[in-house]
């Protein structure tokens, strides 16, 4: 039996942070970072059956073209992803009354929809990026046993290319779900490696008043290439989502609307349109699944 201190439940039996019971979520789940983006997606739903929020974790479940879908805000960073994915898995794969793992496990389909800046000149603003791999620079996933799901070849190549300081922890590389990749992909999608940082400033090469360990890291990342897979963008969630999902038996895919291009210094003239187009595209693909 999983102890009370390990799987914490609210007085109503819901999981502690997400404030959800098993019946509140669908098997198809869309992640967004910002709680205010949840309704930017569910505004397209035919109906909403359930809505709740605790802290930055907001969830709405409803119907879109006959398909039951949940939309959830995760907040920022790999530490939040650790909470969200583990508690979602508990909802479907642990009997919350007996506190025992279920014999028959459920695989969720998790798709992240985000915005990002491109690191490559040929990936223009208003385009879509699908993360073929998540490259975790945050070290969160190293708390788990990940050798069976991680790609050591990509990790080694990145460490050698960037002269990575191993005191920051070994980066980890995790592939997306092939199942979801086939469902969502289109000719408009760019594919590549999405790097996941553990912070917004120093971990992403931003300098305010503090010097950083490697001032050249971003430029090294720009020209990293592994079997024709480049690092397309840099954010704070994808690798953690991929890693925990792979370990727990869920399908995960991360999509980003590119609203800025760092290489060319350009920014989308209408970033909201790009995001809305990615939302509509993803919802329609899920409804057809």
From TrEMBL:
Can you give the residue ranges of the Nucleoside phosphorylase domain? 29-266
Q: What is its EC number?
A: 2.4.2.3
Query: InterPro entries given for it?
Result: Nucleoside_phosphorylase_d (IPR000845), Nucleoside_phosphorylase_sf (IPR035994)
Q: Which residues form a coiled coil?
A: none
Question: So what does this thing catalyse?
Answer: uridine + phosphate = alpha-D-ribose 1-phosphate + uracil
The UniProt entry, under CDD domains, shows: UP_TbUP-like
Q: Which SUPFAM superfamilies match?
A: Purine and uridine phosphorylases
Do you know which Gene3D superfamilies this protein is assigned to? Nucleoside phosphorylase domain
Tree of life domain: Bacteria
What is this protein's name?
A: Uridine phosphorylase
Q: Which organism is it from?
A: Flavobacterium azizsancarii
């Amino acid at each position: 039996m999983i102890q009370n201190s390990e799987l914490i439940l609210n007085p109503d039996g819901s999981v502690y942070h997400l404030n959800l019971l098993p019946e509140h979520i669908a098997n198809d789940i869309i992640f967004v970072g910002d709680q205010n983006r949840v309704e930017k997606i569910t505004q397209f739903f035919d109906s909403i059956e359930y809505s709740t929020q605790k802290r930055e974790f907001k969830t709405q479940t409803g119907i879109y073209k006959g398909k039951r879908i949940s939309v959830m805000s995760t907040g920022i960073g790999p530490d939040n992803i650790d909470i969200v994915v583990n508690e979602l898995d508990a909802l479907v794969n642990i009997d919350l009354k007996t506190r025992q793992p279920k014999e028959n496990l459920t695989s969720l389909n998790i798709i992240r929809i985000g915005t990002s800046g491109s690191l490559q000149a040929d990936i223009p603003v208003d385009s879509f990026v699908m993360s073929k791999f998540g490259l975790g620079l945050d070290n969160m996933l190293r708390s788990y046993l990940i050798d069976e799901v991680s790609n050591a070849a990509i990790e080694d190549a990145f460490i050698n290319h960037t002269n990575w300081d191993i005191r920051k922890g070994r980066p980890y590389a995790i592939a997306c779900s092939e199942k979801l990749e086939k469902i969502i992909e289109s000719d408009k999608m760019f594919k590549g490696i999405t790097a996941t940082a553990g912070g917004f400033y120093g971990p992403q090469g931003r300098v305010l008043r503090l010097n950083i360990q490697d001032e050249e890291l971003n430029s090294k990342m720009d020209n990293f290439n592994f079997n024709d897979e480049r690092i397309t963008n840099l954010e704070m969630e994808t690798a953690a989502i991929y890693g925990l999902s792979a370990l727990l038996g869920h399908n995960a895919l991360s999509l980003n609307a590119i609203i800025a291009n760092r290489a060319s210094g350009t920014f989308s003239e209408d970033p909201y349109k790009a995001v809305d187009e990615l939302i509509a595209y993803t919802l329609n693909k899920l409804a057809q699944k």
